[in-house]
Amino acid sequence: MKNIFGKLSIVDLVIIIGVLLALCVGVVTIKHFRQTADKQIEATSQVTFQVFLRGVTVTGQEFPVKKDGTTFITIRNVPYTELSVLDVTSSPRQTIIPSSKALEQYILVNDPAQPAIYDAIVTITDVAKITKDGAVVGGNKIKMGLPVTLEGENYKFNGTISDVRVTSDVKVEDDGENANLS
Predict the structure, then answer these.
(1) What is the pTM of this model?
(2) Which residues, 6 or more positions from 156, have their beta carbon under 8 angstroms from its beta carbon?
(3) Helix, strand or coil for residue 68?
(4) Quick one: which H or E segment has residue 173?
(5) Which residue, of 23, 56, 61, 113, is most buried by count of CB atoms within 10 Å of its CB?
């Protein structure tokens, strides 16, 4: 016995302790004393989120993001996927001018100094994993204030998520290879 410990170096002892520690963590995980990432997912649901695009320059006749179309989304500079666009609301920049009518103190008019500058809200839908911290899309928690990029055939706009809503539960069936959403 003394011969075995005499031949072990400190590095050998550290490796043995590391292996024993890994075995202990594995046993605790298997016995459900420790919660893994897949156990934190409470549901899979359809979510809609709105992306606010501020100060987008568009000199063409119409806004390039279309309702009922698709847009490729990048979340935190990581490309994700192409998602469905449910709604698009865009309006030119406006300015306040005093009103000559007694009932109204001011009126809003399109800003003549910025004729091609628009603010837009794009509503997008996706299937998300719901955790106790919120919706997770593409490995990212989708929360208000998160920077995203919308990209299409002829546009690339940077925006911020301004609203997130869980709309319905989605039943996920796993056939062993692919998950089918119904």
Answers:
(1) 0.67
(2) 149, 150
(3) coil
(4) strand 172-174
(5) 56
Type and span of the H or E element at 26: helix 10-30
**Token pair in block for residue 54:** 């501020």
Nearest-angstrom CA–CA distance, 42 and 14: 38
Cα(71)–Cα(137) distance, integer angstroms: 15
The CATH code belonging to domain 39-170 is 2.40.30
The CA dihedral of 50, 54, 56, 62, to the nearest 10 degrees, is 50
| CA–CA gap between residue 30 and residue 22 (Å, rounded) | 12
The amino acid that residue 85 corresponds to is: V
- Among 174, 182, 169, CA closest to 44: 169
Residues 6+ apart with CB under 8 A from 78: 138, 139, 140
- The answer to whether 124 and 48 are in contact (CB under 8 A) is yes
pLDDT digits (tens, 9 = 90+) for 105-141: 888 888 888 888 999 999 999 998 888 888 888 888 8
